[in-house]
Amino acid sequence: MTFSPNAQYVAAYSLVLTSLVLTSLVLSSLASPVVNAGETEKSLLDGSTLNTRIESEWAVLTEDGSSNNQAVQKLQLMIEPELETEVGEDSSITTIVRLRTDAEDNLSPGDHNQAELREFYLNTTVSDSIVILGKQQVVWGKSDGLKVLDIVNPQDFREFILDDFDQSRIPLWTVNTEIPINDITLQLLLIPDQTYNEFATTGSSYAFTSPLIIPMTPPGANVKINSTIEPDEVLRDADAGFRLSTFTHGWDLTFNYLYHYDDTPVLFRTIDITNNSVNININPKYKRTHLIGSTFSNTFGDLTLRSEVGYLTDKYISTTKPTDTDGVVKTGELKYVLGFDWYGFTDTLLSTQIFQTYLDNYKKGMIREELNTQITFLFKQDYMNETLHAEVLFLHDIDYEDGMVRPKLTYEFNDEINIYAGADIFYGNEDGLFGQFKETDRFVSGIMIGF
Amino acid sequence: MNKLKLLTTALLLITTQSVTANAPLPTGEQIAKNINARNEGVSQSRNMQMILTDKRGKERIRETIAYRKYFGDEKRTVIHYLTPRNVKKTAFLTYDYPEADKDDDQWLYLPAMRKVRRISASDRGDYFLGTDFTYEDIKKESKVTLEDYTRKTLSEEEVNGHPTYVIEAIPINAETAEELGYGKVIQWVDKNIWMTRKSEFYDTRGKLLKTTLFKDIKQVDAIWTAHRLEVVNHKTGHKTVFNFSDIVYDKEVRDDFFTQRAIRRGL
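Structure tokens for the assembled complex are given below, as produced in the milestone run.
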């Protein structure tokens, strides 16, 4: 094993950490007053509250399997100040900035430092309706760890699906309105933001290699990947949708609809055979689809049942069939997840989910199976008045016989400081979604400071 | 004549006192009904400070705002966490139904997940978000569940100078005891205002588990209200104090405060 993070970056990392923590503390003391019971809240920036989250995470590969043969995969510092400013009686503006630096260079090579305006939105009311305008996350669905309807926002796969979704979801500029109509809430969405999934770059730890995602090409073929054709008309290419939600007879129910661009480009392919050479052109292009879905949940004694189902009308799956003219097959895709949470033991959650996808126009040669089944198990237990949390998440793909196990222990040292340690272990068929990363098993530890 | 008057008065006094002394104590069931019949307003809003102290004296302090409202006999409660940062925007919503055979409904909004999570109401013996109060304690506040216990009156005692009835409540069966986490509860109920001033909770093996004190009881808008709750868990040494302030009864609390939409949006 080599434990040698680049010294120059470690020094910079330490410097950045110290200065940012100090800056955040000063700003926090200005904007976030200490409030004792019965006292009136006073602040130098009256009407504003600044909270800051600082997280430092260290990941070490269990074997020297990374592409650049380094054991330390990640030495990351992330700072997220969140400023909430009251404007008027029932309105506020939220601003979240993310500053991230990684002393290692395995997750996004060549991109050590990132600074972004993560969220920026006005949250207000008009009559009885809630209006949220600006860059934000919209979360649909009821499943854990896997997504069916939670696709309003694209995702950053820089760290596969190991990041919390709250961290990996890419916020979008959105007009989000929630209108109460008797016992039903109608949510309307207009998303004039052409931002899509971000994938780990070639050579990085979590770059996709599985043939389930990247179609294989014949040996010796000349492959040319052309630039991706992205929608660029702000309004004409906007996503739009709605959700109806209600609570009736013990059931939480939603009906969802989204007309959107699939956040992963379709890999259209042409094959040209000239002078005994095979030339393959890949033309990535984003395509629109309708998503129709529903969620429901209820409790039965100790058991909570939750489910979501979604149908995508226009899904394009790559095919290995050389005679196919564009290299993709259009199909509908039905996805659903059925989850059971059991609270039978004190301070303990046992949860299991079955997740299936079905392609309704399956053709031989498609890079995915007609039916795919995954299952998940989650064990969570709290100790010491919820200051110590233990959890194990297990995801398994039944068809590809691969999966992932994620044990984690978190200790809340106090209200401001959490420390955690865990592992991300992949196993199984290396052509599978999880198995492709089985050389990147890792131990992870970190500290999170919030104030 | 004067002697006769004096004798009559003395006899009357003796008779009255002896009748009072021999009057049967109200039954545990009657006391529980009196507790539940106590007026607590149609709606209430209040600030609630939670101080959680572990056995080494390390404190965690949460500031929250809570609203409660009756919709007929159905009680709805919502609690929003304001500080500190690690629990800020967490919110808990519960619908407490009057029908004994109908499970209550509960939802928890966890900002880290940005999702409202439906949680089973049968885990009512679980401790509420790191405190020493169970979900059931939080939901019932100063009221009691009639159908979960059989009660009997043990005696009369004073608690901090206040006359109380001491009642013993035993869960109706082992399953209920397991669900609630208690094998027995002893309550000291104020005779005059039908408020519990002290409770002792025993685990299902009969060992003393927790002691709760209801303190600083005074009238707000003519409703008797505890302004401080203290609970000590004797097994873990952990202690929780709730301090209530800015308590307001029957000021308009909007119906839509008690919706999933509201806990997702926060305050």
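Chain A touches chain B through 47 residues (CB under 8 Å). Residues 1-115 of chain A form one domain. Further analysis is deferred to the final report.
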